[in-house]
Design a protein that fits this description.
Layout: E1 5-9, H1 13-25, E2 30-34, H2 44-47, E3 51-52, H3 63-82, E4 86-87, E5 91-95, H4 98-113, E6 120-122, H5 124-130, E7 138-142, E8 146-148, H6 150-163, E9 167-169, E10 176-179, E11 185-189, E12 192-196, E13 198-201, H7 207-213, E14 221-232, E15 243-246, E16 258-261, E17 267-270, E18 274-275, H8 289-296, H9 299-320, H10 322-329, E19 341-353, E20 364-368, E21 371-376, H11 385-396
Parallel strand pairs: 1-2, 1-13, 2-9, 5-15, 13-21
Antiparallel strand pairs: 3-8, 4-8, 5-7, 6-7, 10-11, 11-12, 14-17, 14-18, 14-19, 15-16, 16-17, 20-21
Helix pairs in contact: 1-6, 1-11, 3-11, 9-10
């Protein structure tokens, strides 16, 4: 094992968590993390909401449910060990219509099966006790839902890899993968190469493209959705103490526009979910013809559009109009409107889409001989990063089947 070299494509929080887990589980293994950007945690890791999820939403028995439950505790302990920010500010999932209340019943059952710690159902008066400026017919209260800074956690993982003798090789975009006759693989980045014995692909928004280099299935295809945020002006930031979420629509993997406290003290509203015109389309003006051809050439894209075009049009309208964007949010905190927020940053969600147009909800991990590909790792992947790392190593070592 001392001569073993494990390559990892992608230095987001998942790839770095897996690299760290390898150094702990297999002392002597050389880990090489290959990242196309000039630093780690540039994309989804740095652009998410920073929430440490408690497991309310996820289908009981799914990978998401199990790995979120374990991962939440692991992240909490890691932050305590490393002195990283971790604030159990709590979360309300609020019903504002009769339909919401009916969905809340199912959500409460799911959360119970998933053993969400301390969660309870509350009414309007207790909503006001927890969030004095909030409103609703009923809510689920999760007191142990927390916030953190996943960029800091990812950098701490990278430091551990390097301290264990590994390498985080930035500015190394993977352009080719070749299986060698004597065993192992050669990873190419232009003229530069790296030989590894095994490879783990954690390429996020580029997961399908990099997986294609190793012969994995073309599906699911990654379709980028931009999530845009607003920041509440300082004069009204005190009106939100923690996290206020809507009851999600079970037809979609997106949670809807919500209020999120950040460890910086800012309070954000968002994100929405707008189809991006580039894989790294953080701005409306970001367009990649190559990415658009790939999106349009996937049969699932058109099947998804046929089912959800009304929702897509509504989200697009909200992207251009602050008033429309805040209309839904005001149902939960009526005193915060379009004049109380400013446009902030955006993230791009790597949404996996099957050929039949289904939005892939659960984590999806494939195994192809010496190569393991992480094909879908949406929220709560950051919360679950350390438990995903354990799971992937178990899959590789034959302890579990993917």
């Amino acid at each position: 094992m001392a001569d073993q070299v494990t390559g990892i494509v992608g230095a987001g929080i998942i790839g770095l968590a897996i690299g760290r887990e390898i150094t702990r589980r297999r002392p002597g293994t050389r880990v090489v993390v290959m990242e196309k950007e000039d630093r780690v945690a540039v994309h989804q890791t740095a652009h998410n909401s920073g929430v440490v999820h408690a497991g309310i939403y996820y289908t009981p028995g799914s990978l998401k449910a199990g790995l979120c439950t374990r991962g939440r505790g692991m992240i909490r302990e890691y932050c305590a060990e490393k002195g990283l920010p971790y604030d159990e500010c709590g979360k309300l999932v609020v019903a504002v219509t009769g339909e919401d209340v009916a969905r809340l019943d199912d959500l409460e059952r799911r959360a119970g099966v998933n053993a969400v710690p301390g969660m309870r159902r509350i009414g309007p008066a207790e909503i006001r006790e927890i969030e004095p400026h909030g409103t609703g017919l009923a809510a689920l209260y999760s007191p142990h839902t927390a916030i953190t800074d996943y960029g800091l956690i990812a950098r701490a993982f990278a430091d551990e890899i390097v301290a264990a003798g590994g390498e985080v090789r930035t500015s190394f975009p993977v352009t080719g993968v070749t299986k060698l006759a004597g065993g192992g693989l050669e990873i190419a980045s232009g003229e530069r190469t790296e030989r590894v014995d095994e490879l783990i692909v954690c390429a996020g928004i580029h997961a399908d493209a990099v997986s294609a280099l190793v012969g994995d299935d073309p599906g699911p295809r990654i379709v980028p959705f931009r999530g845009e945020y607003m920041t509440i002006v300082p004069e009204k930031a005190h009106m939100v103490r923690g996290l206020i979420y809507p009851v999600p629509d079970p037809r979609y993997p997106f949670l809807g526009v919500h209020f999120t406290k950040r460890v910086s003290g800012d309070v954000e509203v968002g994100p929405n979910a707008v189809l991006a015109l580039a894989r790294e389309g953080y701005r409306r003006s970001d367009v990649s013809l190559g990415d658009l051809r790939g999106i349009a050439g996937w049969p699932g894209t058109w099947r998804m559009a046929a089912r959800h075009w009304r929702t897509g049009a509504r989200e697009m309208y909200g992207s251009f109009s602050k008033r429309a964007y805040m209309k839904a949010a005001r149902r939960y905190v009526p005193e915060i409107g379009a004049g109380d927020v400013v446009r902030a940053g955006a993230g791009v969600r790597a949404q996996a889409l099957d050929r039949d147009g289904s939005l892939v909800d659960d984590f999806r991990i494939n195994r192809l001989g010496p190569v393991t590909t992480i094909r879908n790792a949406p929220s709560p992947a950051a919360t679950s990063s350390m438990s995903i790392a354990e799971y992937v190593l178990d899959v590789i070592e034959g302890v579990k089947k993917s």
